[in-house]
Amino acid sequence: MSYISTRGQAPALAFDDVLLAGLARDGGLYVPAAWPKLTPDDLRRFRGLSYAELAVEVMLPFLGGTIDRADFTKLVNAAYGTFQHKAVVPLTQIDSNAWMMELFHGPTLAFKDVALQLLGQLFDHLLAKKDSRVTIVGATSGDTGSAAIEACRDRERVDIVILHPHNRTSEVQRRQMTTVLSSNVHNVALEGTFDDCQDAVKAMFNDQPFRDALNLSAVNSINWARIMAQIVYYVAAAVAMGAPDREVAFAVPTGNFGNVYAAYAARQMGVPVAKLIVGTNENDILARFFASGEMKADGVVPTLSPSMDIQVSSNFERLLFDLMDRDGAAVAQCMAGFRETGRFEVSQGQLARVRELFAGYRCDTEQTLDVMRDAYAGSGYLVDPHSAVGVAAARHAGLDRSIPVIVMGTAHPAKFPDAVEKATGVRPPLPRHLADLYERPERLDILPNDIQILKDYVRARARVAKQQA
Ligand SMILES: Cc1ncc(COP(=O)(O)O)c(C=O)c1O
Ligand SMILES: N[C@@H](CCOP(=O)(O)O)C(=O)O
């Protein structure tokens, strides 16, 4: 199993190097050179496996022998042992043919834990094997940051710097990051948007001497390992609904396009997926793309679902790569144009192809609140504002009722208590392990959106750099 860059100019790598590299050296994203296949018999065999057992089966082919089965099983068990629910990602029925897959029972209450708990284990394992260390830089609109910090805190071979947009996350999200006082954890509140944070991270990766000096690594979904771990729950959901003998649809509240891309990857591997419904908030660049074929960035507006306040969805490049028949040069040209002008367009033929599988839906604040209110009034079920966008998208899709729809429940309602209270009148309490979050001291640095200042900040905190000095 080797991995190639979406821009065609970086060396192909094996899994261990892809994990540590994060972004490809040509600015592209790594994808498998070929998709491992799941046959109908494989899917039947998966029925009745625990989540951890299934995770080993689905992910092992992606490792290409870089970690053996016994070691990988230990890492997977350690990762999913941290979840509060025995099923890890339980399914709750929310309508006659719709289910919510609750991805938020991990330590930081968002779907990011599913991948990042495993990434923490993988970094430890591979860095020890290579006797190396890394400096992780990550961008977050709120959830990746806390999940990555939780997964990497106190790890001897890792320093982690997370950039979040100043005053644009929920208070719970911010505190989950800034109250971790471990000496290897550094939080930057950047004066800008999430897109500015993500741009800064990519700029650091694209400065090759800086990247090499600090052994930069990534925890965002630009890192292939994030996508790999997220594929597993789509396989689990489809198998639970009767795959391979029944098709399913997924409704995915979307921002950076990593989660829904993992669903696409599951389909490429052989999971019978009839439709992928992409839900967006008012930052609706993706919904507009699936309607018109034009990707056109606008300013980011703050919404009830702050983790999805994103305009430039980095993982879209991975889908584009397939849409352009894996022509790296064409993708590189398209991305360069997008960077310069803030827009690109696909052909009508490409749009038709993409729409065979994908549909987009924009859900505004009122609709989000309505979904949350209805769910609570109907069954006492509290839904967070991101998952609510997914529910609205699923309802709008108008699918054949014989196809079960699984909405990705991406965050616990307690992460967004203001929005939930506004919709339902109920303020969901934080689970016990976070009950004193508001009393814990915080540590963070507020910095301007200036790449030189940000690089200096990271360099000063990277133990790799200190060892070399
Ligand atoms: C709670 C929540 N829902 C949805 C999303 C969107 O997921 P993706 O960026 O993978 O599209 C995010 C952030 O990424 C999130 O934190
Ligand atoms: N919503 C995300 C944004 C970053 O997405 P990622 O999947 O690329 O890490 C967040 O919560 O930070």
Automatic annotation (TrEMBL):
Entry keyword Lyase: yes
GO MF entry, a single one: threonine synthase activity
Record-listed E.C. numbers: 4.2.3.1
One Pfam family recorded for the sequence: PALP
Keyword annotations from UniProtKB, A to Z: Amino-acid biosynthesis, Lyase, Pyridoxal phosphate, Threonine biosynthesis
EC class name: lyase
Reaction(s) catalysed by this chain's protein: O-phospho-L-homoserine + H2O = L-threonine + phosphate
Keyword Repeat (UniProt): no
Pathway in which this enzyme or protein is active: Amino-acid biosynthesis; L-threonine biosynthesis; L-threonine from L-aspartate: step 5/5
Cofactor: pyridoxal 5'-phosphate
GO biological process, one term: threonine biosynthetic process
Membrane-spanning segments: none
Protein name in the entry: Threonine synthase
Protein source organism: Niveispirillum cyanobacteriorum
